[in-house]
C-alpha cells in the first residue's frame, strides 16, 4: 500500500510539473517573454542587467513567437504595425539570436547617418544636448563586457563618459541617445531605403551597436523582415548591476517597474 501511494505521488508530481510547463509555455508564447539585457547597445535607455517582459501581443504572432521558432504557420497572424520609436525584440535573420533595438525606419523610408545625426527621408532628427552619461570602467554583467568611453582609456575603476542627447523622431517621440564620436562608419552611412515588409533598427548607444546600419554578413542585422518581430519592450521589471542576480547589493531599485521610453 505504501508503495502504491509513493508511486501515485510521483505520478501526480510529474503531472503537476508537466501542466506547469505547458501553462508557462503558453504564457511565454502568447503574452509575455522574459528578456535580460546582455550588452550596452541600448544604453542609457536599457542597461546591462535590466530584466523586462516583452509584450508579444503588440504586433501579432509569427513562427518566431514560439520557442525554437516552432509555431506551425508562416507570416503573421493578428498582425499590428509597430510604431517608429518602439523598442523591439526581434529574431536576428541569420544567427537566430534575439536582439533588442529601437525601430527608426519604416517600410519605404530613406535612412542615413551624417556626422552622428539621424536623417529620415532627408530630414534631420533634432538632437538636444542632455549632459554626459557616466559609469565606472569595470566589467559589466555576466559577460563581463567593458564599456567604451568617449574620454579615452580611463583605466580600471575610472569614470567612463559618453555625450548624451535627446533625439526627437518625426512623430514627436523623444528618447535618449549616447555618442562617443561622429567619425565612425555608423556615423556616416549611405542612404538606406527600407524595403516593403521590413524595418530599420538602431541602438541608442550609437557607437556601440551592431544594428541595421551594418550588413548581416558583417555581424549586423540589416533590414529586418516583419515576421522576425517578437514583441515590444514596455517596462523594466528588475535590474541588477552584478555578474549574478543573487548579488543583492548590486540591485538597482531605482529601475524597478521603470517605463521604457
TrEMBL record:
Q: Name one GO biological process term.
A: signal peptide processing
**Residue positions of the active site:** 41, 101
What is the name of this protein?
Signal peptidase I
Taxonomic placement: Bacteria, Pseudomonadati, Pseudomonadota, Alphaproteobacteria, Rhodobacterales
Q: Where in the cell is it found?
A: Membrane
| Pfam families the UniProt entry points to | Peptidase_S26
| Enzyme class, broadest EC rank | hydrolase
Family, as annotated: Belongs to the peptidase S26 family.
Name of the gene? lepB
